[in-house]
Amino acid sequence: MDSPRISIRPFKLSDVDDFLEWASDDRVTRYLRWNTITTKEEALTYVEKVVIPHPWRRTICLDGRSIGYVSVKPESGDNKCRAHVSYAVGAAYWGQGIVAMALRVMISSALKEFPDLVRLEALVEVENRASQRVLEKVGFLKEGLLRKYGFCKGEIRDMFIYSFLSTDKIL
Ligand SMILES: CC(C)(COP(=O)(O)OP(=O)(O)OC[C@H]1O[C@@H](n2cnc3c(N)ncnc32)[C@H](O)[C@@H]1OP(=O)(O)O)[C@@H](O)C(=O)NCCC(=O)NCCS
Hints:
Layout: E1 6-10, H1 16-23, H2 26-29, H3 40-51, E2 57-62, E3 65-74, E4 82-89, H4 98-113, E5 119-125, H5 129-138, E6 141-152, E7 155-165
Parallel strand pairs: 4-5
Antiparallel strand pairs: 1-2, 2-3, 3-4, 5-7, 6-7
Bound molecules: coenzyme A.
């Protein structure tokens, strides 16, 4: 999708109702490192304490309203050359190219905003085919399988690792 109705911007506290709409859906949070958010109070605390202070987390908007997010978290010290990427969009919007579009914007913005970055990386569960496909669509390279790499929803999982280097071409 390349639509003028889709945009990316920092979160605001006033996004909380729209945020709750997709963050309360277990299908959306299933492969994310954070848990489904069920109440408005919880959503407000999360947006205020976690989302807004994040180094680079943007909401994906449809007609200005939050329908998902994309984030980049650079490491520090000797590892500041790399950053971890994360993303999701409400289930009603899956399969429309929205996250692919958001990732393309994210890559060029993050590489400009964090000049030390040379590598963006993403970890994806083996069953999460849509997430693997979206990364491949925008130019990330699957580097391999990390066996029993980390916890997701209480279980230690195998994960594919993907990377995009600052010298790679955005597809
Ligand atoms: C993964 C996710 C971000 C993809 O977002 P999206 O906006 O639907 O992505 P796009 O439409 O740009 O591309 C999805 C691609 O995956 C493909 N796809 C979808 N389901 C698939 C499946 N089960 N198997 C293989 N491919 C699949 C689509 O056909 C599309 O590819 P195409 O354009 O070649 O047809 C979205 O499904 C989501 O938010 N999931 C929940 C959160 C999540 O898993 N985040 C990633 C954590 S690593």
